[in-house]
């Protein structure tokens, strides 16, 4: 066997990536693992020990929760990014972060390659590899799970042969990916779009019909597009999201069940639970309607669709995404204020908002005493606004008899 050099493997501690360690060693690599904490439930020290036991020469563990929120989640929130208008991109957002640290560790270690545990049908293989190549065009990327074609039974047999510890309890029928921004749930009964997602698929949210009978009202403070306080209490990004996940989750908020157009070419039934994300995106979007002018809102809404697509497709480090970020950052300079949200049995409803930069003026909008709108100006406005249509009608419009016939008077 020829020694190929060092390789850095994105390591979760699950069966696939644990088996990948000895398999990659058999290909000639010295394997170093990298595990990112992005808010998922994980025994970090246990994972590190398992990586070493499975054959890794070194195991890196990194707490990336703050970086995940500040550099990825908050940028996505300012863009109200939801793929196909529904998915808050919780899994997709963590992949460029993980890819960037894989490349960083590889460069520090003098590694010749990085690796991931994605399958040939997965979207994360695209996201990780495209992002890694954007940061280091010369890096080699290995994908053992995509290459070896093991069945699950063969994987388990391989693990036992190489002394890799595997769970002895019955595994969950679901494939789960979780971080601070939400939880993705796949496989099992969920692969049939006719079947309702069972209650046992969800962990962050209660069944909406079992949520408390009394609504909970919260106030989220924003500064320049970013949430900075909850119920008047200043909080860090990580703490605020964690708290909202708990509060909104108890109200059954944040469940998503959709047919998703996957990057790899087919439709898939996807189930998510993102209580904090759904609550924050709804609140942020509402505050923008109060603080941004019509033409800016219109342009931003169009770019939000593209932003979500770029994130979903692994183009986080693309020049187009960077350009859209610059536009969005400019719009957020005035998006400050407080949004009041009512959480009740699966719904997060904005019920009030205020801002020092509000473009809403009660003295112009009111129909009551104190109305300062110049009603006489409406006559001239209508004349100018309708002039193109009037001119066209004068030249090409219907005659009165044609109009009468069109509306059924004859």
Structural class computed from helices and strand pairing: alpha/beta
Q: Helix-strand pattern, N to C?
A: EHEHEHHEHEHHEEEEEHEEHHHEEHHH
- Overall body shape: elongated
CATH topology (level 3) name of the largest domain: Argininosuccinate synthetase, chain A, domain 2
Distance between the termini: 92 Å
Percentage of residues assigned to helices: 40-55%
CATH C-level name of the largest domain: Alpha Beta
Radius of gyration: 27 Å
Main sheet makeup: 5 strands, parallel
CATH homology superfamily of the largest domain = Argininosuccinate synthetase, chain A, domain 2
GO cellular component, one term: cytoplasm
GO molecular function, one term: argininosuccinate synthase activity
Pathway: Amino-acid biosynthesis; L-arginine biosynthesis; L-arginine from L-ornithine and carbamoyl phosphate: step 2/3
Keywords: Amino-acid biosynthesis, Arginine biosynthesis, ATP-binding, Cytoplasm, Ligase, Nucleotide-binding
């Amino acid at each position: 066997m020829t020694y190929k050099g060092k390789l850095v493997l994105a390591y979760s501690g699950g069966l696939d990536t644990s088996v990948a360690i000895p398999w990659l060693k058999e290909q000639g690599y010295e394997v170093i693992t990298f595990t990112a904490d992005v808010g998922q439930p994980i025994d970090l020290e246990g994972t590190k020990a398992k990586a070493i036991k499975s054959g890794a020469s070194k195991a890196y563990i990194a707490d990336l929760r703050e970086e995940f929120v500040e550099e990825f989640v908050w940028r996505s929130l300012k863009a109200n990014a939801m793929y196909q208008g529904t998915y808050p991109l919780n899994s997709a957002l963590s992949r460029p972060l993980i890819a960037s640290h894989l490349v960083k560790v590889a460069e520090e270690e003098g590694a010749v390659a990085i690796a991931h545990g994605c399958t040939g049908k997965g979207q994360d293989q695209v996201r990780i590899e495209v992002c890694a190549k954007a940061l280091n065009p010369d890096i080699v990327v290995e994908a053992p799970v995509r290459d070896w074609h093991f069945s699950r039974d063969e994987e388990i047999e391989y693990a036992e042969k190489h002394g890799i510890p595997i769970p002895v309890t019955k595994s969950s029928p679901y494939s789960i990916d979780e971080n601070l921004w939400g939880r993705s749930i796949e496989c099992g009964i969920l692969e049939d779009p006719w079947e309702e997602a069972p209650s046992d698929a969800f962990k962050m949210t209660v069944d909406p019909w079992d949520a408390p009978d009394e609504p909970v009202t919260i106030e989220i403070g924003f500064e320049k597009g970013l949430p900075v306080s909850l119920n008047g209490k200043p909080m860090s990004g990580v703490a605020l999201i964690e708290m909202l996940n708990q509060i909104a989750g108890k109200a059954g908020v944040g469940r998503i069940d959709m047919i998703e157009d996957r990057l790899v070419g087919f439709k898939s039934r996807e189930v998510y639970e993102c209580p904090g994300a759904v609550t924050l995106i709804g609140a942020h979007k509402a505050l923008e309607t109060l603080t941004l002018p019509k033409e800016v809102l219109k342009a931003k809404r169009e770019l939000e669709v593209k932003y979500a697509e770029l994130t979903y497709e692994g183009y986080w480090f693309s020049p187009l995404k960077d350009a859209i970020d610059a536009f969005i950052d400019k719009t957020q300079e005035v998006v400050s204020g407080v949004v009041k949200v009512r959480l009740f049995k699966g719904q997060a409803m904005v019920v009030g908002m205020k801002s020092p930069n509000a473009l809403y003026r009660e003295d112009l909008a009111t129909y009551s005493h104190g109305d300062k709108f110049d009603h006489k100006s409406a006559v001239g406005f209508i004349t100018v606004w309708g002039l193109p249509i009037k001119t066209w009608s004068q030249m090409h419009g219907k005659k009165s008899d044609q109009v009468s016939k069109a509306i059924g008077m004859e």
